[in-house]
Amino acid sequence: MDSIRKERPRREDLERMGVANWPIREKEVSESERHYDEGETCCILEGRVRVEPRGGAKAVGFGPGDLVTFPEGLDCTWKVTRPVRKHNRFG
Fold first, then answer.
1. Cβ proximity of 60 and 7 under 8 Å
2. Is domain 5-90 in CATH 3.40.50.300, yes or no?
3. pLDDT by residue (tens digit) across 27-67?
């Protein structure tokens, strides 16, 4: 399985991807288990999150300005340490 990918794209790259048109989701400070039946890409607008994949893969922290891609089939724990606002797209 692929690993979580985090990048810091330029504004032009985000515009080309149409990120501003993706739905916005919010999540309060919490901890939850996640399974990705399909991949997800999100652009963090506010907040801080640490995602811990099951199976020994390295945990990934991210915040405002990060573009994060979660692969299909990933099982992980989301630890939201500051309320999150993000654009996201599934598939």
1. no
2. no
3. 999 999 999 999 999 999 999 999 999 988 899 999 999 99
